[in-house]
Automatic annotation (TrEMBL):
Molecular-function annotations in GO: glycosyltransferase activity
Highest classification ranks of the organism: Bacteria, Pseudomonadati, Bacteroidota, Flavobacteriia, Flavobacteriales
Record flagged with keyword Transmembrane helix: yes
Alphabetically ordered keywords of this record: Glycosyltransferase, Membrane, Transferase, Transmembrane, Transmembrane helix
EC id: 2.4.-.-
Keyword Ribosomal protein: no
Name of the protein: Glycosyltransferase
Similarity comment: Belongs to the glycosyltransferase 2 family.
Organism expressing this protein natively: Winogradskyella aquimaris
UniProt superkingdom: Bacteria
């Protein structure tokens, strides 16, 4: 058997794997309509952990305080900031009775560890139902908390939301960031729907305080500087206790990174936690990514070799039709339809970047969350 033939057979397998993944994603999430049944306003605590976020708190905290929700408090955690973050928090506290401040002093043992600061914020909360977001996030509407709370029930103790990034015109980096965010959401929403939830994003998620302490909080991975969101969800989420919330009124919106260097560093922190996921999740995620990478490598190689070109082109088109169908439905739900035309190019760049990040992280791992 020639090398080209072996590559072609491998390519058929790779395309088949990709088609299965995207078909399953399409069935599990992309094709499902959003449904919300508002319930009585249960007591909520919104927790925001901030480190040197004075400007973002000024801009975004009002949208949280103005939520159309009758029963909620806001716990602001100042994680050893060196700017005016604490002063801004106290200014808001003076005019809002539902704000509580936790001022975390820097100590050597937990220096640079967001999980320690978050744990103190959770302990200070008055309510059992906790909603998490970041200082650089703003709810898309004043119905954010109403949507999130509607997903809780006697069984559902975790709610996974969607943290979008603001759109910037004529910016390839912005398109890439939003594309990666949609693809990530497609996966964690789909896996949750299929009964194997594996992560959430700290920009928009919620869970019960009781669940946190019954599972010893972040203790099993406290030594890791990142993973306060995805590693905890990977640890405690199950098919019966997890719900998803992806209505557009329930989005949070963040300002994206404006330089490739900052974005790469952010992605390096996120990727560094994936190796601590449960084995079944690592296998599923690795198979998807490896099949993506091989699709591009082998398809380009076979086209260069001009080996069975017609069949290769048919397989490429087949894979892209399924992928773009799945991505299109997802992008429509997540308000990112303008990315559809660029999707193939963005995917190629993203897969290449993820490979370089993986290799870089083997050499050194990011140390701090800020």
């Amino acid at each position: 058997m020639s090398l080209a033939t072996a590559l072609f057979i491998t390519f058929i397998v790779v395309v088949s794997i990709q088609a299965i993944y995207y078909t399953v994603f399409l069935y599990a999430f992309s094709g499902k309509p959003a449904q919300t049944k508002f319930k009585k306003h249960i007591p909520l605590t919104v927790i925001i952990c901030a480190k040197n976020e004075a400007k973002n708190l000024k801009n975004n905290l009002p949208a949280i305080l103005e939520q159309d929700y009758s029963n909620f408090e806001v716990v602001l955690v100042n994680d050893g900031s060196s700017d005016k973050t604490l002063k801004v928090m106290k200014t808001f506290e003076a005019s809002h009775s539902n704000i509580k401040i936790v001022d975390v002093k820097t100590i050597e043992t937990f220096w640079g560890n967001k999980k320690y600061a978050l744990t103190l914020g959770i302990k200070a909360s008055s309510n059992d139902f906790l909603v998490f977001t970041d200082a650089d996030c703003k709810p898309a509407t004043n119905k954010w908390l109403a949507h999130i709370s509607s997903k809780f029930s006697n069984e559902k103790a975790i709610v996974l939301g969607y943290g979008a990034y603001a759109k910037k015109k004529r910016s390839f980096l912005n398109a890439l960031i939003r594309f990666e965010t949609v693809i990530t959401a497609l996966q964690y929403f789909s896996y949750a729907q299929l009964g194997v939830p594996y992560m959430g994003v700290g920009r928009n998620m919620a869970y019960r305080k009781e669940l946190f302490f019954n599972n010893n909080g972040f203790n099993s991975h406290m030594a890791l500087k990142s993973g306060d969101d995805d590693l905890f969800i990977n640890q405690v989420a199950k098919s019966k206790n997890t719900e998803i919330c992806y209505e557009k009124d329930a989005f949070t919106i963040s300002e994206p990174k404006t330089s490739f260097k900052d974005w790469i560093l952010q992605k390096r922190r996120h990727v560094s936690t994936a190796k601590f996921y449960k084995t079944k999740h690592k296998v599923l995620l690795a198979l998807f990514y490896i099949s993506q990478l091989l699709f591009w490598i082998i398809s380009i190689t076979l086209l260069f070799l001009a080996f069975k070109t017609q069949w290769v082109v048919v397989l490429i088109i087949f894979r892209f039709v399924i992928q773009l169908l799945c991505f299109g439905f997802t992008a429509k739900k997540l308000d990112a339809m303008n990315l559809l035309v660029l999707a193939p190019f963005l995917e190629l760049f993203l897969v290449s970047t993820q490979l370089s990040i993986f290799i870089t992280n083997l050499i050194s791992t990011p140390k701090h969350w800020k």
